[in-house]
Amino acid sequence: MERTLVLIKPDGVRRSLVGEVISRIESKGYSIVGVRMMNADRSILEHHYAEHQGKPFYEPLLEFMSSGPIVALIAEGNRVIEGFRSLAGATDPTVAAPGTIRGDLARDQGTKVVQNIVHGSDSVESATREIAIFFPEGM
Ligand code: DAT
Ligand code: MG
């Protein structure tokens, strides 16, 4: 059974959308098999976002992601990686399709980094790597 790492970012937690995000994942038919609320420190975020190092939005991204608590989730189900990316919608919330988490619940805030409520792993390799970062004790 496939697993993916979902993060509810600080904007989602601040806006009390934890239940809404979990509800959409569960309503789609996936199972939540791990959950952890935490304040992500810089080292964990550097590790998680290593692929974006050097990009103009990298520092704002790390600052935003450490600006408040996040909720890390492991969701499970056949093709959940692709399925959650589909539920989340496009990276840019302005153009994310209505019906998606980002399309329904986020918009451009005029910040240097896009604030878009959720993260979802983009491949089996990323999911394995990212789950190990946020759930180092296993799940
Ligand atoms: P995604 O989260 O859809 O996988 P990503 O991995 O390319 O997108 O980028 C990670 C996060 O960084 C993304 O959720 C929001 C932010 N971001 C991406 N591209 C950006 C850009 N061009 N300008 C500002 N923020 C950006
Ligand atoms: Mg990504």
UniProtKB/TrEMBL annotation:
Which keywords label this protein?
Answer: ATP-binding, Kinase, Magnesium, Metal-binding, Nucleotide metabolism, Nucleotide-binding, Transferase
User: Which enzyme class?
Assistant: transferase
Q: Which Pfam families does this entry report, sorted A to Z?
A: NDK
InterPro entries cross-referenced by the UniProt entry: NDK-like_dom, NDK-like_dom_sf, Nucleoside_diP_kinase, Nucleoside_diP_kinase_AS
Please name the SUPFAM superfamilies in this protein's record: Nucleoside diphosphate kinase, NDK
Per UniProt, residues of the Nucleoside diphosphate kinase-like domain are: 1-138
Q: Which PROSITE patterns match?
A: NDPK (PS00469), NDPK_LIKE (PS51374)
Single Gene Ontology BP term?
UTP biosynthetic process
Cofactors, names only: Mg(2+)
Return the EC number.
2.7.4.6
An MF annotation (GO) of this entry: ATP binding
Q: Which residues form a coiled coil?
A: none
| Protein family according to the UniProt entry | Belongs to the NDK family.
What PANTHER family has UniProt attached to this entry? NUCLEOSIDE DIPHOSPHATE KINASE
UniProt name for this protein: Nucleoside diphosphate kinase
- Source organism of this protein record: freshwater metagenome
